[in-house]
């Protein structure tokens, strides 16, 4: 059986949200679109969440993805920023679930590693590798767009097995075991 599916990749953000859409046909990757959802001109959180919902619903209606992949939020020090990012991610997930599109999460490190071979790669290194891999000419102004594309490509390379499908603990358990210095004891 040959694979033929469309994957929507999301790099969640509260100022700029990146997305990338690829078509996988006979194990060949073709970029359909990538870009950003600009949120920095909106001043309140509900308006930002509505913009995310409206734009993703539009992308889903236009491209009809079979699957969605999203970057899992990484551990941050600013609780308010993490809360806002979690809301943005939740709206993106809810949009897909509302359209009966299955989703999977991937850690930032895993996404970078699947594209460049290094989990510590920069945004620029990820973008350059994707440009070669997917043969697009112009680099976008905001690399959040290529980050969204990277999530979709990572999902394909991972055969849809992300943080939800891992058998060895959840993503927070894995994160804490890989980053013991981040856990502060009282």
Number of helices: 6
CATH topology: Nucleotidyltransferase, domain 5
**Arithmetic mean of pLDDT:** 88
What is the C-level CATH assignment? Answer: Alpha Beta
Q: How many beta strands in the DSSP annotation?
A: 5
Notes on the protein architecture:
With 186 residues, the protein is an alpha/beta fold. It has one domain: Ribonuclease H-like superfamily/Ribonuclease H (Nucleotidyltransferase, domain 5, 2-Layer Sandwich). The protein has six helices and five strands. A five-stranded mixed sheet has the order 3-2-1-4-5. The mean pLDDT is 88.
Architecture blueprint of SSEs:
Blueprint lengths: L3 E8 L4 E10 L2 E11 L6 H19 L3 E5 L7 H20 L4 E4 L1 H9 L6 H12 L9 H14 L13 H8 L8
Parallel strand pairs: 1-4, 4-5
Antiparallel strand pairs: 1-2, 2-3
